[in-house]
Design a protein that fits this description.
- It is a single chain.
- The chain has about 240 residues and is α/β, with parallel strands linked by helices.
- It folds into 2 domains: about 180 residues, Vaccinia Virus protein VP39 (Rossmann fold, 3-Layer(aba) Sandwich); about 45 residues, no CATH class.
- It contains 8 helices and 11 strands.
- A hairpin with a 5-residue loop joins strand 6 and strand 7.
- Helix 6 crosses helix 8.
- The longest helix is centred in the N-terminal third of the chain and has 17 residues.
- Bound molecules: S-adenosylmethionine.
- The site of S-adenosylmethionine has 20 residues, from loops.
Length: about 240
């Protein structure tokens, strides 16, 4: 008898029509985030950039506007379906842990909006970065855009306060896991429950994982405007260079 594994939260939570309702504000935010993040990636025109994960493609126009050639990849069929309709392009269904791309094929990997730390183990989260390194050419660039742990820690009103009604119309409860490493965000909308379970690393852990995966950190930014990283800032954006083998 095979062992039964429950479905990983990220397989279902993002692949649901109500996900688009919960994250509706990200459509508008793309107009600010896209150009800013594409500029921080800072590659020459014509560079091949893998948008991993691409979601429904909200940041693709900004990447293309910078002159990048973009290939998107995501696990969620529903996101990819919406992407094909709203932002046609070259797309692949994939899992971060085993990318369907050749070694050293890309100039950039663009990983926006806290799309790292989803896996339950350090090995798998490291594997995601190792896969990013594998598909990048030597000196290729990874832009890793994360929610700052310090910001969540300071946002005491939302974290650990029990259920509340979010402005967007869903009920929400946000807590730290018992070991304090992961953030658990539960949401209820139209009778459906969603539960994100994301490792929010310390800054030194992000740096150590990047190093271990084969990257040299070039810059850490603390905001879309490219200000330097400092403790407590909302956004942690790492620009890392794939070390030549
Ligand atoms: C927060 S969204 C960010 C999407 C996009 N970067 C953006 O800014 O709109 C996270 C995305 O990661 C995708 N995802 C989750 N787990 C994944 C996995 N194991 N492999 C590939 N994609 C995954 C989800 O389907 C979802 O589209």
């Amino acid at each position: 008898m095979g062992r039964w594994f429950p479905m990983d939260w990220f397989v279902r939570d993002f692949d649901h029509p109500l996900y688009f309702e919960i994250y509706k504000d990200k459509e508008q935010e793309a107009f600010e985030e896209g150009p800013a993040l594409a500029a921080l990636l800072a590659l020459p025109e014509g560079s091949l950039v893998l948008d991993l994960p691409c979601g429904w493609g909200r940041l693709q126009p900004a990447l293309e506007h910078k002159g990048y050639r973009v290939v998107g990849g995501d696990l969620s069929p529903l996101n990819l379906q919406r992407h094909r309709v709203e932002f046609p392009g070259t797309l692949a269904r994939l899992d971060f842990r085993s990318l369907p791309f050749k070694n050293a094929c890309a100039d950039g990997v663009f990983c926006a909006y806290t799309s790292w730390g989803y896996f339950a183990t350090d090995q798998e989260n490291l594997k995601q970065l190792q896969e990013f390194a594998r598909v990048l050419r030597p000196d290729g660039v990874l832009l890793l855009d994360l929610t700052g742990r310090g910001e969540v820690e300071h946002n005491a009103a939302a974290v650990g306060s029990g259920w509340y009604l979010a402005e967007e119309g869903y009920r929400e409860r946000v807590r730290w896991s018992s070991d304090g490493r992961r953030i658990l965000a539960e949401r209820i909308l139209a009778g459906e429950r969603f539960r994100h379970d994301i490792w929010l690393p310390e800054d030194h852990e992000v740096r150590a994982f990047l190093q271990a995966a084969g990257f040299d950190l070039e810059r850490a930014f603390g905001g879309l405007d490219g200000r330097p990283w400092e403790a407590g800032v909302e956004r942690w954006i790492y620009r890392a260079i794939r070390r030549p083998a």
